[in-house]
Amino acid sequence: MSRPLESRISLRFSHFTFRSVCFSLAALVALLIPAFGGFRPSFGLDDCSWNATHIVLAEITSRDDDFKVIESWKGNLNAGDHISVPLLEPAPDAIPIALYSGQRRPYAPSGKGYMEDIPRQPVGSRVVLFLRQDSDVEQSPNAAATTGMSEWQPADFFHEIRSSVIWVDDSRLYIFTQWMNPGPSLLSNWDKSLANVHARVMEVIQNQEALTEIMRVKDMSERAERLKPYIHSNTFSAKEFALEQLGKCGPAALVTIRKMLDDPEYALEGDELIKAYSEAGGESAGEELSTRLQKELSFWQTTGPQLQDGWWDQDAKPDAPLRLRYGQTIQLIRGLQHAHYTPALTTAIDLRDFWKSLPQLNDPSGLDGLARECDSLISHLSQKQRD
What we know:
The chain has 387 residues and is α+β, with helices and mostly antiparallel strands. It has helices at 4-16, 25-36, 45-51, 194-214, 220-227, 236-248, 254-261, 270-281, 286-303, 321-339, 345-357, 369-386; strands spanning 54-60, 66-74, 82-84, 126-133, 152-154, 165-169, 172-178, 185-190. Residues 5-37, 103-112 and 136-149 have low confidence and may be disordered.
């Protein structure tokens, strides 16, 4: 049986591509290390588009680390500007894509293969660069200049330059992808057109700009309502940003979040909305969270005895009802700990004891994590009562 939280991460990766993760970076690393320790960088268009301060279609010049801007898609560079990216300098023995690009899924020969290296493309070849600019470096918006050596950094989630670039060879696009885990990141043909890539980049940027505008709204209730449509955004980073900002809107956002929690259309985001609710309400969210946890206890008391061993893996779809319910229950427990809501102590004890009473629920492959979350909440609330 796959572990519940790891499975939810896997589902979000498949739905939103590589970057999709629905936790903070610290939680992501903690959860990924046991099962996904072999992850290597793979290009993610949405993630790079969101994180980049500058995106350009550029031309390779005669100097290995120099690129001439053809079009600027994001940021303040202009056509004709030159940028220096030492991280993209090919190795002395690097070869062009044309010499090894015949396969859809290239494989590396024994040892380190060329397909793991930055290719040495002919002068005039094009690349799309997704870069972040060092905030300490000042640059005039209208100045055509060559930037400093340390200025440009990768926009990739893992801070890897190879997965922050699209290489264009003839009309075909190439990106670094990890085909197998464990395994290397290999330069691979990408079944996309440059026009489609540009359109998607513009869509991500438009979402980002719209959310930036929403953040200027001073009324927190109105801001929460304007964030609501982005909870269903097909741009993962926009969705994550909206959920994070909902939690920062404070008590004024509780009505909006509560309506979403009660709307089946937002069932897939239920656990994340519970987290936003607890963060927005703080201690004032405790009563609502406790009421919802009591409902979850009743649900599992009715459903749990009917489940068989292995029920977790019987439906692995992103919207599998039992998986969603498990995640929401976990998040309610964590929210109550955040709210320090001591009246929930009895419910937490009852849920913990019931969960441990059924082997199919308290499965040590990972489902027993809910009982451990209850233990943590019980310990926390008991201490609060003593204080």
